[in-house]
Amino acid sequence: xxxxxxxxxxxxxxxxxxxxxxxxxxxxxxxxxxxxxxxxxxxxxxxxxxxxxxxxxxxxxxxxxxxxxxxxxxxxxxxxxxxxxxxxxxxxxxxxxxxxxxxxxxxxxxxxxxxxxxxxxxxxxxxxxxxxxxxxxxxxxxxxxxxxxxxxxxxxxxxxxxxxxxxxxxxxxxxxxxxxxxxxxxxxxxxxxxxxxxxxxxxxxxxxxxxxxxxxxxxxxxxxxxxxxxxxxxxxxxxxxxxxxxxxxxxxxxxxxxxxxxxxxxxxxxxxxxxxxxxxxxxxxxxxxxxxxx
Amino acid sequence: xxxxxxxxxxxxxxxxxxxxxxxxxxxxxxxxxxxxxxxxxxxxxxxxxxxxxxxxxxxxxxxxxxxxxxxxxxxxxxxxxxxxxxxxxxxxxxxxxxxxxxxxxxxxxxxxxxxxxxxxxxxxxxxxxxxxxxxxxxxxxxxxxxxxxxxxxxxxxxxxxxxxxxxxxxxxxxxxxxxxxxxxxxxxxxxxxxxxxxxxxxxxxxxxxxxxxxxxxxxxxxxxxxxxxxxxxxxxxxxxxxxxxxxxxxxxxxxxxxxxxxxxxxxxxxxxxxxxxxxxxxxxxxxxxxxxxxxxxxxxxxxxxxxxxxxxxxxxxxxxxxxxxxxxxxxxxxxxxxxxxxxxxxxxxxxxxxxxxxxxxxxxxxxxxxxxxxxxxxxxxxxxxxxxxxxxxxxxxxxxxxxxxxxxxxxxxxxxxxxxxxxxxxxxxxxxxxxxxxxxx
Lengths: 294, 441
What we know:
The complex is a heterodimer. Chain A contains six helices and three strands, in the order αααααββαβ.
């Protein structure tokens, strides 16, 4: 019967034996606490298949009925069936045995088939699981990829936005700079013009212009007798670039109505006023101060 | 005649100083000081007046009378009719641009309407074309005989509006003329409008007539006549021609002048010893009161406008100078100190100026002292022998006689000496003009 690959009875016996040995060790440890580690090498070798001494009590065999003291494995496992006294009996027994073997064989086959099925199922399950796992992983990866892509896109967009803002800022700064330059240029031009005007005003052209203005008004002022020394009247004249008098307004006057009218008439009659040779000298407003020295 | 121009070309430095330049930065107005002026008369326009009446033309060219008055003042130059772009006769017709272009300072328009057989209505309006406003406007009734006087009144109102001083176009002038030689020599006391028009003789004599003087109401003239071979002082009422001899003392009776209230005369009496002194006579009582007693010549008395002083001429300090003495009596005080000769004092009606005959480097000329400004003196005439200054009632102008060859002629001059005008008169030797007070309407 060496063909038996597996004998549950023998396996049980072996287990029981191991348990008994383990129990004896536990018992021995109670009386020899100091030599607890001084276990025989043999035992040690037999325990090679057991990962850990301490883990033994957790084996499912612990739940089996308490082992008989001093079990005799041989008689239980290897005792042959008692011989039939008769052929019939023998035949019957053989038939039974055959039937039993067949039953066992069927069971074995069944077991094998079941195991194979189980294996196949397990395998299928495993494959399914792997497939699902793969699918999940793929999806996750896909999601991750998409996420990364989106992140990349987002980053790209953000970068573009930043770049755009930087560009706007740069433009603005550029505009600002141009404007400032323009303003500076305008200011410089204004200063230059003012300097030119100041220079012109300090020139003999200015003297000539003012003299011409003065004389034209003097020639046209026919004051009444009440215009005497101490008179002080100001009249403001607005003129066109051609010197045409647009209006004349007496700003202040300590003379009588006739004096005021004569002053207005003088600047009106003086129209068109002389224009300066240098146009820088032109002013749209001129205030004439009438101050006869008597 | 030539009018001195006050325009002078000032040195450029003075101009530069007179002008305030705006500092750099904010642009300010240019400032130009006008310290001189032009005494060229101001251009004005007197538009021919409209006429509505039974004859083809009005009995008097009122516009021409007004224009002539303004021209004669020396302050205005009416433009020629041919220059006018339009001839409005009512305010609604006037287009100010027509006159602004011509640069006239004033425009006079008006109408004469006949309202009866010898009744007229004279309407005039004065406009400032630059401001586009009416300055004055009136309607006055007149007859043929008063049309000229009405025109003068209109000119007076226009002149006063434009110059701020009263016009004297409706005033008159009295003066003495002498014509003929030897036995035929005739003296006349004449009154005319101030422009020489409407001349009429109020007295004619073969004996000299001298020193006419107006009463304050313009109705009477006092004068000296040498009729009957002696000097005496007469007062004659113009309207009636009645004349009264008010002083006929032995010796000299001369230089009468009415007090501002018309009740007294100041006169010069020589008495038997011939020592001329100033007396004041009450016209109602003929009572005389002696004001000066100096043995020098005191003569040519003249009243201050407030009636408190008599200004007179005395040579007590050597040459003739002007003194004044209170009418109530007192010590005379000397008034003039310029030069060796200041005679014939006449005060302006406003009391601010004193006109005299002044010896100006050998020439007898009219000079005006400014009593308000430290007695500053201005010689206002240019002749060799000018005499008898008399102020117009507006105190702005004087009339005097100036010798040209053998004859005296009349001139007027503004008290500042700037504007002088010759008055055309009837001819002969004209002397001693006296300007009437303002007429009382």
